[in-house]
Amino acid sequence: MNKNKVIVVFSGGQDSTTCLFWALKKYDEVEAVTFDYHQRHSEEIQVAKEITSELKVKHHILDMSLLNQLAPSALTREEIVVKDGEAGGLPSTFVPGRNLIFLSFATILARQIGAKHIVTGVCETDFSGYPDCRDVFIKSLNVSLNLSMDDQFVIHTPLMWLDKSETWKLADDLHALQYVRDKTLTCYNGIRGDGCGDCPACKLRKKGLEKYLIEKEN
Ligand SMILES: [Zn+2]
Fold this sequence. Notes:
This protein has 218 residues and is an alpha/beta fold. The protein has a single domain (2-217), classed as 3-Layer(aba) Sandwich (Rossmann fold), CATH 3.40.50. The chain is built from eight helices and five strands. Helix 1 packs parallel to helix 6 and helix 6 (164-173) packs across helix 8 (200-217). The termini are far apart. Bound molecules: zinc ion (ZN).
């Protein structure tokens, strides 16, 4: 197992692209994995392909269409409306088991390519109500995966305790702010860069960027 090799769970969005730059700075060998679960916007896969190609990162795409079959949500079905959870409920964008499945497959892939490290852009701070983005869940899964394969993988979550403005700062510190802003796709309506400006993902992203840019000037 190569201690300096890492696999980044990569969707082509702001968070995972920032994680990709973080990994490129920290590790000698970086590969990325994107899960194709027939996302609402196949554009996501295209964006992920383009970014990894530009950054010269080996890119794996795994077919996870079974997730769509098992767990329909607003991220996978056009007919389900994107909305926040009501009073403690889960948002309609929640895909049950997504991070459990993605991180398990990413770690199996890490084993196959001989990488010790796995990076994911999950974050507890802007807690959107996704239970599988919590730090305690990631740590628990890391232990289970190591036990299951009798190995010592390390799952890294560089964004876990950052809010969106701090995530923009990290991208800036990595000299990638403009790249992340222009090239990534976070918008639920499938529009790159600053997006539609109106969906929950765009609003969160925009609010964080504005906050960071104001702080940077002062
Ligand atoms: Zn949007």
